[in-house]
Specification:
Layout: E1 2-7, E2 10-13, E3 18-26, E4 33-39, E5 46-52, E6 57-59, E7 67-72, E8 77-82, E9 91-98, E10 102-104, E11 108-113
Parallel strand pairs: 2-11
Antiparallel strand pairs: 1-3, 3-8, 4-5, 4-9, 5-6, 7-8, 9-10, 9-11
Length: 114
Amino acid sequence: QVQLVESGGGLVQAGGSLRLSCAASGSMFSINVMGWYRQPPGKGRELVARIASGGSVNYADSVKGRFTISRDNAKNAMYLQMSSLKPEDTAVYYCIAIGPMTYWGKGTLVTVSS
């Protein structure tokens, strides 16, 4: 079992920055990929970024150049640095850990005001 807890969400003005954190615990040795998904109001969940244990990363086109994902394996932590935030980035952001099973956190709300 893996437990994931997100933090760092909040209200920010357009153009601002936020840093999300995901604290992981449990059987992290089985996890290969970690990532962030988001669910905007009234919409489905979508991939934001993911990072493999070897360090390779993928970003959604909508966040490339603005968001940076990073991972600290020693601390079992993952981060999402978000800059140049836009109102359309408003969403609940979820941490995900993928191994033989997939685990989700409960999410943290990011609200970007115009």
